Amino acid sequence: MTTGNWWTAALRESVNGERPLAVVCNGEALVLFRNAAGELCALEDRCPHRRVPLALGTVTPKGLQCGYHGWTFSGTTGMCTTIPNLREDERVPSRYGARAYRVAESNGFVHVWLGEGSPADVPLPGADYQPRGSEFSGAAVVNIAHDEYLAAMLDGPECLLEFGSVRMTDFFLGDPRVESGHLVVDRGAVWTMRMLPAAFVIDHPLIVRTAVPLEGGTIRVELLDADEVPLVTVYIASSVNRRGTTSLCWRGFRHDARVVGAPLRWHLARRRECAPFRIHQMIDGAALAALLVAPSRDLAAARAAQRALMSDAA
Ligand code: FES
């Protein structure tokens, strides 16, 4: 078991009291749902009776009912509350329980505490996400391991995502820096109507800023103008899924800033309230392999420095 942390497991709107939601978060299979009181619940996605996924079951007023033999588990404690066909004089044995996780909701995300320790004083990921105006959101599992996803977010975010009408370039604007527990990298970008190949562009009217956490998995990506006025902000929650894949869920919004020099398509998309951002769900392995390992080296160094600091303090 590792040192505990909050991990973002899902979008708020995908967890309800009708259908349990199966997720894999930081490598752990979980089932999320809301109980009859509307409370968020997170259980290990494995029935303690015969090990089938609880996510195949049904949410009932008494808890989550396994789809196989109908045992029911409390969403808050994980304890088995009902076993069908017990005789009147039989009690549910107290050893039958699914593991229950601490769960919290903030800013449109559902977070689960995984690992040892207590969540007291540990801030929820993305606590500073303050959407204004209409949001866009999504969830996906991508074909790349989690550590590699974080590294590519620094070395070549164009392999992983895109902003509408924007082309990212290879030019870093300054050195990577550590800010508020994230490694932050600024990269120059241009509107797509610029016909010059990226290698010949020397002025960048746009900045793509990626901030990758030293611990946990909540990435912040921003599109800014040359004066660093934010145009689009996105939070991407990432974590280890199975078989070398990565779970993602994201929320973002377009700011109200006046945008100078954008192509007509940008303004039309805004009027139609189309999301100005897209995650690549099938990642191009050849493009990924061709990326130079650059700021991700700084991420490894910053993580090592932070761990050394923490072990000195302990
Ligand atoms: S496997 Fe779940 S109740 Fe039997």
TL;DR of this structure?
This protein is mainly beta. The chain is 13% helix and 37% strand. Bound molecules: FE2/S2 (inorganic) cluster.
Protein described:
The structure is a single chain. This protein has 314 residues and is mostly beta strands. It has two domains: 5-114, Rieske [2Fe-2S] iron-sulphur domain (Rieske Iron-sulfur Protein); 135-313, Alpha-D-Glucose-1,6-Bisphosphate, Chain A, domain 4 (2-Layer Sandwich), CATH 3.30.530. The protein contains four helices and 20 strands. It has helices at 146-155, 264-271, 285-289, 295-313, and strands at residues 5-11, 21-25, 28-34, 40-44, 58-60, 63-65, 72-73, 80-82, 103-106, 109-114, 135-142, 161-163, 166-172, 177-179, 182-191, 206-213, 218-225, 230-240, 246-254, 277-279. The strands form five sheets. Strands 11, 13, 14, 15, 16, 17, 18 and 19 form an eight-stranded antiparallel β-sheet that branches. Strands 5-6-7-8 form a four-stranded antiparallel β-sheet, with no helix packed on it. Helix 1 (146-155) crosses helix 4. The radius of gyration is 22 Å and the shape is elongated. Bound molecules: FE2/S2 (inorganic) cluster (FES).
